[in-house]
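Field: COMPLEX_INPUT
Field: COMPONENT_COUNT = two
Field: RESIDUE_TOTAL = 744
Field: MODE = joint
Values follow.
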Amino acid sequence: MPRLSRRTFFAWLGAALGTVAVSDRLEGAVAAVAAAGLDPALLRALAGAILPAEIGADGATRAADAFHDWVAGYRPGAELLHDYGVAKISRAGPSPMLRWGTQLARLDRAARARHGASLGALSAGRRRALVADALAGDAVATDLPGDPARARHVAVGLLAHFYMQPEAIDLAYGAEIGAMRCRPLAKNPERPVPLRRRAGA
Amino acid sequence: MTRTIEADVCIVGSGVSAAMVAERIAGERDASIVVIEAGDETLPLNKRYPSRDRFLRYGESPWPHDHLDDQTAAGPLQSRSMQVGGLGMHWGGVTPRFSPEDFRVKSLYGVGNDWPITYDDLDPFYQEAEERMGVAGEQGPPEIDPRSKPFPMPAIPLTYNLAILKEWAAKAGIPMWSQPSAKNSVPYQGRSACCRNDTCFPICPVGAKWSPDFTWSALRKAGRVRLLTRTMVRRLVPDEKSDRIAYALAATQDRPSEPIHVRAKTFVVAGGYTWSSHLLLLSRSSRFPNGVANRAGLVGKYLSGHRNVGAYVSLPVQLFPGINEQHSLVTKKFMRPRKLDRYVRHDLRVWESSVGRSPRLRDDSGALLLGDALLDDWRRRTRGEGTARVRAYYDVIPARESELTLDDTARNRWGDPLPRLTFRDADESKALRGHTEDTIRALFAEMARVGDGKIVRTSVDDFQDHPAGGCRMGSDPSSSVVDAWGRAHDHENLWIAGAPTCVSGGCANATLTFAALSLRTASRIAADLPMRAAGASSRAGNA
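Field: COMPLEX_OUTPUT
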């Protein structure tokens, strides 16, 4: 997965800051952060540590890349579903990309400072410990947020995104439920069949 | 410059009620029909999967441009939806009927008001609505779920989960069955069968759930209606020399300062519980200072609905949430009491749920869960146990002051005051509220007990669902707005369709009842129109 282009990053930055255009002066000031972005390699390293080992390295990569795509597709200000009984129209907040990119870069710096190696070079256990330290300073809620964008830390966002997928539900229940997928109505009465393990997982 | 449109029948609105009226009249009568919708065209079927995907991934509204920014209401507005199809584009598709008792609560139980019609009067129109929409269902025990004819489609099959929960309910002495739904269990009228995408609310991506746009597509293709979009009816203007409505004054979003006069022999206001009363009240003049159809002062009054008490029950049964979460069990057992010491009537529905069994970041000791620990914790909490969601809608008797009024402090782009909604229970309903909710909570507790389960949490939603009223029907013009067919007492060529004509909210999802009432209204309108000759060419309103 290629890294974000500088042009794309600044389009997102503008959206994240709620501005239409980013001035040249602001562009210079955030150049250091822009260089990090939401690094796909760091995301994969994070996923490999905090997602369940049974999905394997390939599964963690797929999850990380899917999360990256999810962030890339986020539309700040998009109109949200308006619920019954409420006249107010709600809109999506700013993109979490800038905040999460900064946190991801910070995790990597912590890895280098503590262990002399990048995040991706550490064992899964050491990566998890760094994440736990990063989350220790925050009041982390008990539940995963239903909307990953609400996660205060990129690790929680990645977890929320992974666990909202139908595949994760199937993993938890050990059964091929296939929630939210088009499935024959005639199979409604059947107990979901046991989950078949994906090759490489 | 004023543009004039003429038709035999002018229908205001394009939601469920409007679609039923138009389809009934167009199908059997030789009449030109113009339909006026304030909002935009709706999202075509071939774009609904991508739109649904954005909803699932980001919570975005799957219906773009489905409201007007300056057309809202203060108070509990059911929905901002204003587009072709109205609220019917994102309804859940659930279609129970009211029970016979809903129409006779005064006679049977000494509360509220009787309707001027009985269940038997509405029965043939319920059947017609089910056949026009395509409702899949099964009859419950005949003594509590009477029907004169079968459903047009077999029931949505109970899921593995619901079969287990049905047995649980039976242990508590509660017979339950598959909820009737306007969702195809088999292909129907050119639309595919349901395939459990399970986003019925807010969007069915395959067209298995009926929505008004399918009716409009067929009528427009056949040239049987002319549907004007982005056109707001601002007033109904009576004839100067009689009480007949002469024309509807309208304007388009695109040319807001150019008036349109829609002249018709018959006007049908089908704008739902908010916009129907709103239009009548806006139609003030020196001859009708309180608006049209309002000599009795009751337009906007007696807004009704039902309130819900819900709970989540943890049970020692293995369930698999996600098989078909939006489908449910239903019973009418508690809607049909023979004798009551104190009035309590409610429906009951049961769904599978995953509440209390979602993945979490911290365990019970507060320790952070990452990696295998998170998944292992989730697995432990879902093995051998499941959660049922139970919910009861209970009947609320409306006060006269449960009302829609005009709010002069909030106006739309044309300077028209917007509505303010205030729901109020009648005193007799307020006095019963505690007893009602305690009774329902006790029922949930008993259900949990017989299932060796426990209540996880209960809730009461103050919002009155499936709101209706504002133009209630009745035989006496001094205490009602329309007669038993929906004709305004004050204007012989003005009809109100569906929800606004309800006397009470009942205790079941009401859309099918709104549709049946609309078909009954349409049947009466149609009786005064010439029959269509076989093979007759199409007629829509001219410009």
